Structure formats: structure tokens, C-alpha cells
Amino acid sequence: MAACALRRGLLSTVSKYNKKHAHRILSVVDSSSGSEAFRPRVQCRACGLSGGFQQKRFMSSRPEGKILETVGMFEAVKQHGKYETGQLFLHSVFGYRGIVLFPWHARLYDRDITPPMSESKPDSPGAHGSKEVKGKTHTYYQVLIDTRDCPHISQRSQTEAVTFLANHDDSRALYAIPGLDYVSHEDILPYNSTEQIPIQHELFERFLMFNPAKAPPFTPRDTLKAWQEKNHPWLELSDVHRETTENIRVTVIPFYMGMREAQNSHVYWWRYCIRLENMGDEVVQLRERHWRIFSLSGTLETVRGRGVVGREPVLSKEQPAFQYSSHVSLQAPSGHMWGTFRIERTDGSHFDVRIPPFSLESNKDDKAPPAGYTF
Known about the structure:
The chain has helices at residues 2-15, 150-153, 204-207, 222-235; strands at 24-30, 36-37, 52-53, 66-74, 88-91, 97-110, 136-145, 163-165, 174-176, 180-184, 188-192, 208-210, 218-220, 239-245, 248-262, 265-278, 284-295, 300-306, 314-315, 321-330, 334-345, 350-361.
């Protein structure tokens, strides 16, 4: 119910926000046990998440033995400006509860927008005919995901997608921070809560403190500021690439992770986050991936395989998006990646969706390249 509303009707509803008609966000309490389950709420047919935006006329449809409890109130969506540290939100696509840690200002290269001739650039080598456009500044946020919602979004979005290199010489050692995500400004549905700890995450109280005199009432601790500063090189989000083919939009965000030495050579590592989103009404399924990886050293590698990260996700109107992260390493400080996803329709026919070309840059001019995670 909640996530369905978020996806189909909630955006238009919140955009018409009126202070006289604040919208409640609801969770479930198990009346049989008497204990509050401020965890995933009434199961949503659309995406497995629950709770969320409900009006009184829906309350009679709650499952037997469950009652709805208010956990927060929606706020006006910000059309201009940015959300501050401590802002509570629901993700408009995946439906999870989260809190903003700090913003990133990225360059968005949207190939669905035709630029003026004066702003267009020539195609890069191997860019499969896709035009390059001038980057436009766009705000993303580093956020914490409520751990109670993680099991309900794990089939649609990885909750351990933010990875880093270990602080030692093992070039293949990668680690992840559970419940850390990057969220675009338009995916934020802000709300407020009277709870002093409204988000369950092991880093919540280490990073934030409750301050009722502030709005939002959660302010950063010194540990958050120090953590951001120390880990800025591998956390930083700088470029976002987007392209749509036959109503399937692909968004790619690359991250430079650092360099390690292996067998007397330098190995440069990147992670990349990809989101596929079905913008149409037709049900489709991702079947294959086809990557081309070009290295500054002159090598061109082709990678083909079934699905992505071991899955072949179905993209429907009810569950339109799938997001995952993966990694690539080169024996050169820079390169390019591009490719296609093979998509299957319900009638068995196929079409290829373009993955927008993106650069792999090592920030080799930095005096202190990323060395690994530091708390």
C-alpha cells in the first residue's frame, strides 16, 4: 500500500502539500503481542515494503491482528535548495526509511536531453553512437537506510552497495558498509517524527544527536564530520550518467576506490552503481549484459553474461526499478566503459538497452589518493 502509493500517487499528492492537511506516515503494531513493531509495516503488493501514506478510508483494510500507528508526518517536498543533515525521508522508488547525512554535488550527464549545438561534444571512442552532453549540477545525498527495511528491499536494491578497499596490501580485499546509500534529490520524500531515534542503524547515534531546538532535530556529531573528511576520496560522488532506451532508463554512477600494487604492477579499482528503471507500462525482464571496457593501456575487453549480480530482475509498473553495484579494475589510471542490457518482453521478443558510456578516472593528480576505509 505505502510503496504503491509512493510510486504511483504519492508524488503528486505531496507536491500539492497543504499545511492544513498534513499527511501521516503509518507503521504497524502487532496487537497480539502488545509491542510496537516500528519495523516493516503492512505488506505492500507492489514492492514488499509496508506502512507509509494512508488515509482513514484505507484503515479498514488492515490485516487482522494489526493496527496502524503514526510514525511521522510528511513535509513539503523541496523544489529548490537542498535537504539538511538529519532530514528524515522515504525513498520515492524503493520505499525505505532513511536519514540524510550530507549532500554531494554531482555532474549529471543526461543523454535524454538534446543539448544546444554549442554545448555538444564529439562522441568518445567506442561510445556506440551515444551523444555526450554538458554536465548539469545535480544534488545527491549520502544517507543511512533503516535496517528494519533492508530485508524488504534487498531483492530490488543492494543494501551493501558502498564498498571500499582494505587498508593493507591485499589488492583484492573489498569491504562494505551495510545500510549506506546515495539518493538523488528527487527521490527524497521528507517527513518528520517525534521519535528521538527514528532510524535504526548502528551508525545513527555515532553520527547524529537529537536536538529539539533545530529543524530537522538531528544534528551532526563531530564523528560524522571527521568520518566524512577522512573518507571523502572514496565516498565522493562526482559524475552521474543517464540514458533511456524504449522506456528503460539506465543510470550509472562510477566511483574511484584507489590503487594497489600486485605482482610489480599497479591495479586501479572502481565501483559503479547502476539503476534500471522501467518508465513504461510493459513488463520486461533483464536477461543479459554486454560490457566493453577500454583501458588507457590500449586494451579493450568484452564481457558477456546472464543477468547482473546473479539475478535477472523483472521490471514492472508495480516494481519498476532495480539497483546494484559492481567493480572493475584496470592496470592503467583511466579508461572507459559502455555496453548494453538485453531485455526480454513478455511475448519473448528482445531489445537492447544502452548503458551510457562513462569514464574511469583515477584522480591520479591527488596528493593523497584513497587508501581505504577509516572510521
